[in-house]
Design brief:
The strands form seven sheets. A six-stranded antiparallel β-sheet has the order 14-15-16-17-18-19, with no helix packed on it. A four-stranded antiparallel β-sheet has the order 1-30-29-28, with no helix packed on it. Helices cover 0% and strands 53% of the residues. By secondary structure, the chain is mainly beta. Strand 24 and strand 25 form a beta hairpin.
């Protein structure tokens, strides 16, 4: 049986992440806690809104109600990357070559490694940013679709249109697909054609009883796991046209609770599933086999992250009851 090392924090915890072998927990109040030979705290923001891991640099990128974008290193030190006075930074993203994306209002920005900041203005508010896996390119989720911008070129954006409010965005690891989460309890996808100007194919992924707030690609990019249902809904993306015409896997189905967070294992076709009652399971894609990792807790699971070797799983919750699960026991 896996063992759980608990960490009780005050209030809502937005994100869990590993930097090296050290687990980090980012709270909505703006404090970043890490378990590094004892609990240590970095007071990063006056109100934290967004936190992502920058895999290339093994750091965290955070944005807050104080208008600041910070880089948090493994030793807890914080570096100011950008500041937009009197604005809330609600969206951040980590990109290649040290690039960092962030947004407030209708403006998406990309800060390059040399400190240069590029701005991209949308007609409606920016709800999500993601970097493409190849080339310095961003996708921006907005009302009625998404926009794809080349950061270093003056080329016009590629507009991916689909009616409705798009709240988040992700690229497949091979760059062939873009998927957005929507306000209307659905995902929408586009297959990106390699030929400029060629028509993009639409993919509708519907049937969720709740909004999809958590997405995670499998290690080889063949599956996309999602929250928003009583099971983890895992869509197949290995075929030429992605999930079109193919049913998803439904893993870890439980009655009367919702999946609120998903995190695919870094090496195996396994997904960690966090629920609205705080329970955490692991499920295998091949045969749907489940392993209980944590019994129900005080609040819904908000975020989970695997260590690089896949032996530890950190989890965060909206009630502050966090922890690290050691799968080796």
């Amino acid at each position: 049986m896996p063992t759980v090392a608990p960490l009780d924090l005050d209030g809502h915890v937005i994100a869990a992440a590993f930097l090296g072998d050290v687990p980090f927990f980012a709270t909505a109040s703006g404090a970043i806690h890490r378990l590094d030979q004892g609990e240590k705290v970095t007071e990063a923001h006056d109100g934290l809104l967004a936190c992502v891991r920058d895999e290339a640099n093994d750091t965290l990128i955070t944005g807050g109600e104080d208008g600041k974008v910070l880089r948090i290193a493994a030793d807890g030190s914080a570096t100011l990357l950008a500041e937009v006075p009197r604005k809330w930074i609600s969206v951040v993203a980590a990109g290649p070559q040290g690039a960092v994306g962030f947004a407030e209002g209708r403006t998406a920005r990309v800060r390059l490694a040399d400190g240069t900041i590029k701005e991209f203005t949308e007609a409606r508010s920016v709800e999500g940013i993601a970097f493409a896996p190849k080339g310095l390119r961003i996708g921006v989720a907005r009302y009625n679709g998404a926009s794809l911008h080349w950061v270093a070129m003056a080329a016009p954006p590629v507009d991916l249109e689909w009616k409705g409010a798009h709240t988040g965005i992700t690229f497949s690891p091979d760059g062939r697909f873009v998927v957005t989460s929507m306000q209307e309890n659905a995902l929408h996808g586009w297959k990106l054609d390699a030929k400029p100007g060629a028509e993009t194919r639409h993919m509708r992924m519907t049937g969720y009883p709740a909004k999809v707030k958590s997405l995670s690609w499998s290690a080889k990019g063949k599956w996309l796991a999602s929250s928003g249902a009583p099971a983890a809904i895992v869509w197949p993306f290995s075929a030429k046209d992605g999930p079109m015409g193919k049913p998803p896997l439904e893993l870890g189905t439980r009655a009367d609770v919702m999946v609120t967070a998903v995190a695919c294992h870094p090496g195996e076709d396994v997904v960690a599933i966090g629920y609205s009652d705080g329970m955490v399971l692991a499920a295998r894609f091949a045969d749907s086999r489940e392993v209980l990792l944590r019994r129900p807790g005080k609040g819904a699971v908000t975020s989970m992250a695997w260590s690089r070797n896949g032996k530890l799983l950190a989890f965060a919750s909206e009630a502050g009851d966090c922890g690290v699960i050691d799968l080796a026991g």
